[in-house]
Amino acid sequence: MDPLTYGLVECGAAFLAGAINAVAGGGSLISFPTLVWLGLPSITANATNTVAVWPGALGSMWGYRRELGQTAPKMYLLIAPSLVGGITGALLLGLTPSAVFDRLVPLLILFATCLFMAQEPIQRRLAAAYGLRGGAHEGSHDRSRWLAWGMLFQLLVGVYGGYFGAGIGILMLAALSLMGQDDIHQMNGLKNLLALFINGIASIYFIWMSMVSWPDVMVMAVGATIGGAGGARVARRLGRPVVRRLVVVIGFAMAFAMVIKQL
Predict the structure, then answer these.
(1) What is the overall mean pLDDT for the chain?
(2) Burial class (CB in 10 A: 0-12, 13-18, 19+), 100
(3) Lesser CB count within 10 Å: N end or C end of the chain?
(4) pLDDT in tens, 224-250
């Protein structure tokens, strides 16, 4: 493959990954296999992909800046477990084989997608049980308990994200929905912000350990950034119901793709 075609394939895969990550997450299932198909070793491809899509997360977060401004301040507490989990997962990537964890990925994604589908019925049950209306009251003891569980879950998501990362968007959207978030665009904005920290701390480690291919990073970063910023605008235009359906479709498609890959 000539260098021009190689670069165009990389840039195109990164663009799609950035756009998909802005809407629901899972773009790495396009960009990571593309790098492997182009000839990079799997560990190098994984680290390179993490560094390359980070600017896309920055672009998509910027695209949701208006919704982030309307997010409850306490939700920013999720940044801390994102950082801790991200560096832990990056360390694990360099220390452990991925075969066992890879087999768990489809189940994790499928479970998270089912949770996201059940968001509204679960929130109605919470409202009936705790007397909550329209999400939650800021000072609610029960909602604080859900936030504590959410921080623990976010820590696990961060570990997975630092280790591989495909599907962290689906996992975070599911967790946010169970924590009382009901605006899909605000959820996407917060999800992109948290992914920025997870991938950012992991990227620092990968760069420090010389695990990335810089020529590939440079090309893919351009495509991921453009795709991330554009994806947020498209999601807003599509509307909440369409985006929710898209999240579910992507979740099941990701789980199916990972199962096929392992056969």
Answers:
(1) 79
(2) exposed
(3) C
(4) 888 777 766 776 677 767 777 777 787
Q: How far is it, in rounded angstroms, from Cα 242 to Cα 231? A: 14
- What pTM was computed for the model? 0.74
